[in-house]
Design brief:
Layout lengths: L2 H16 L4 H12 L10 H19 L1 H15 L5 H22 L1 H5 L5 H22 L12 H11 L9 H11 L4 H23 L11 H25 L6 H19 L2
Length: 272
């Protein structure tokens, strides 16, 4: 894989990870329909994708660093017997990270086999769009509230929505946003919680997969670093844009875009 290809994939991953499209789905489909020289079959592509996700996670961490420091300080006070809202939110994020983390660990082998198959990813992009559309419908029935008003049960349910993102084609940010909207969060608060929740799960996946890049992984280490940097820059810009976007907009337009990408991908795959 060339550095240029890795940077292109990194930019795409960084944008689509935060936008409610599936970055994994698109990165599985794109090499197939564009004939990019990418090793999608075999054990090499997944560690490369995780490197791109690590760049995204670092961008999210840096973007929300002041908030993370506040949450961590609050969590430490909470442990010392001084309940506070910041500490409570931190532990809600930890709780919500458990379902996808455990599921990804237990089903790692069967899930990794999906990454070389673009047809299911294209189909699930359509499903992803339908899920986003449902999120809008569910939200209209709720009175919006903030992340600080979430109960542990609701945080756990949002974490269970994150399990869907283990399937290429289903978006992590989209799934968790829909989970938050269905439980009464506002659009901006659902996006904020989704982006905070993405950081620990992506870092955890990176700790498992990145050691496989040791020694160059037959030429993938350099592209992985370049792609990770590109993904981080794209993710930073996406986060800044989307946090403003969801103050005034719903998911409807993005739902239509996801379904359109899925349909176009199915057509493109059919011609190859």
């Amino acid at each position: 894989m060339s550095i240029g290809t890795a940077v292109l994939l990194g930019v795409i991953q960084g944008f689509t990870e935060l936008f409610p499209f599936s970055s994994l789905g698109i990165l599985v489909i794109l090499p197939r329909v564009t004939h990019l020289l990418v090793p999608t079959i075999g054990p090499r592509y997944l560690p490369f994708l995780v490197a791109l996700h690590l760049g995204t996670a670092l961008a999210l961490l840096l973007y929300f660093l002041p908030e993370w420091l506040t949450l961590i300080r609050g969590a430490l006070r909470y442990l010392r017997g001084h309940p506070n809202s910041d500490g409570r939110i931190f532990w809600l994020i930890v709780l919500a990270s458990i379902p996808a983390g455990v599921t990804g660990f237990l089903l790692k082998a069967p899930l990794s086999r999906l990454f070389g198959h673009p047809l299911p990813a294209a189909f699930f992009l359509i499903v992803n769009g339908a899920l986003l559309w449902l999120g809008d419908r569910w939200h209209r029935r709720k009175r919006p509230h903030t992340v600080g008003q979430l109960t542990p049960r609701k945080a756990w349910i949002i974490g269970c929505f994150q399990i869907l993102a283990l399937i290429p084609g289903l978006s992590r940010s989209g799934s968790t946003m829909v989970g938050g909207l269905s439980l009464g969060l506002s659009y901006s608060e659902a996006a904020r919680f989704s982006f905070l929740l993405a950081t620990p799960i992506i870092f955890a996946a990176s700790l498992v997969e990145l050691p496989k890049l040791h020694g160059g992984m037959h030429g993938l280490l350099g592209p992985a670093v370049a792609g990770g940097i590109a993904a981080g820059l794209a993710a930073w810009l996406s986060t800044r844009f989307l946090l403003q976007y969801f103050k005034m907009h719903r998911l409807h337009a993005l739902a239509v875009a996801s379904m359109a990408m899925g349909v176009l991908s199915l057509i493109a795959i059919g011609f190859h």
